[in-house]
Amino acid sequence: MKFAIALFSPPHAPSSRRALRFAEAVLAGGHEIVRLFLYQDAVQHASAALVLPQDETDGARQWQTFISDNQLDAVVCIAAALRRGVLNDEEAARYDKPATVQSQAWTLSGLGQLHEANQLADRLICFGGP
Amino acid sequence: MSQSLLIVTRQAPWSGPGAREALDIALAGGAFDLPLGLLFLDDGVFQLAPEQQPASLALKDLQANLQALPMFGVEALYVSARSLNERGLSDGALQLPVEVLDDVGLSALFERYDQVITL
Amino acid sequence: MSTLHVLSHSPFSDSRLSSCLRLLTPGDGLLLCGDAVYALQGGTAQRAALELMPETIVLLALAEDLHARGLVQLPERLQLLDYPGFVASSIAFDKVNTWL
Question: Active-site residue A126, yes or no?
Fold first, then answer.
């Protein structure tokens, strides 16, 4: 089965970890993730500026590792990202701001990518809230 | 054949970006000509209330986005009768032409769509 | 088309569970995770409402969230899920509706 997974909550939310555990189980079960999509406060996962205490789980980093280990297509909604201060080099130059996106793991793009993923997938699963 | 998507919007209009971000999903899908429905549920029905003046809060008017829905091909608009009644809103004075559904109608609505996003 | 409804908010401070209960159709599933598992707390109206759901509704909960919160004495009809079970459930139903 093909899954599109959309995340709506920030890295410190329990639903972020839950989504990661789910995504891992999807791949472990022999299924495919056609795309990961970040919307609303989930865009924070793409920030390179998060600093966590040593004894706390770094959800954003875990997601980044998962994405690169499995070469997944991982998209951040650009409109949601810009208004929350998550920019890549290109947008930072455009708006004369510091860049803060982990550009290697995540790609800034539009909501069309969410809709395209939904059309490609057998299942759309959203994670958000607590 | 395209998979259909029901977007359920439950946030009041001026409590944060939730209402607008739900609409943005609908408008983006409409721009791609996808089969979409939009359901106003719970506090989401307040988005349809008449006489709103968001400029008082220095906020962008959501109404322009709402009015754009039919232009983007999103015409399957629904509202929960129960949510309206609980909030003292009359179905005769709403900002958009929406189909009013009771709980049975809402259950049937969910059945008809391939995918759902409830935010 | 059956729907797996996923809830993660506490039902005591939030209306998602009550709104969801009104929309359920025979064959649907209700998956409690995060703080939504508090709906299974004994002696509550929320627990009673879950037990009153027709048998045609499948009641599921994420085991790790129950354990974390010390919830015991669970309804017999409740199916506990691990993550492979969560994935399997998302496939068993025609679509997943998370109440974000």
Answer: no
Backbone angles phi, psi at B82, to 5 degrees: -60, -45
Q: Are the C-beta atoms of residues A129 and A10 closer than 8 Å to each other?
A: no
Question: What is the residue-wise DSSP string for A51-79?
Answer: ---TTS--HHHHHHHHHHHHT--EEEEHH
Q: How far is B28 from chain A, CA to nearest CA, in Å? A: 6
CB C3 within 8 A of CB C96: yes
ipTM tops the 0.85 cut: yes
Give the domain extent around B31: 5-118
Distance CA A75, CA B106 (A): 32
By CB neighbour count within 10 A (0-12 exposed, 13-18 middle, 19+ buried), where does B50 fall?
A: exposed
Rg (CA), chain A: 14
Q: Would the CB atoms of B110 and C22 count as touching at under 8 Å?
A: no
- Whether the CB of B4 is below 8 Å from some CB of chain A: the reply is no
Task: Find all residues with CB under 8 Å of B40, minimum gap 6, and list them.
Answer: B9, B47, B48, B77, B78, B79, B80, B83, B98
pLDDT tens for C2-54 read: 999 999 999 999 999 999 999 999 999 999 999 999 999 999 999 999 999 99
Q: C3-99, what's its fold?
A: Hypothetical Protein Ychn; Chain: A, (3.40.1260)
For position B68, which CATH number holds? 3.40.1260.10
Written as six digits, the tokens of A50 are: 């998060």
**Residue contacts between A and B (CB atoms, under 8 Å):** 41
Q: What amino acid is encoded at A22 in this protein?
A: F
Strand runs labelled E in A1-130: 2-7, 32-38, 74-77, 107-109, 123-127
Domain ranges of chain C: 3-99
Number of structural domains (chain B) is 1
Q: Is B67 helix (H, G, I), strand (E, B) or coil?
A: helix
pTM: 0.96
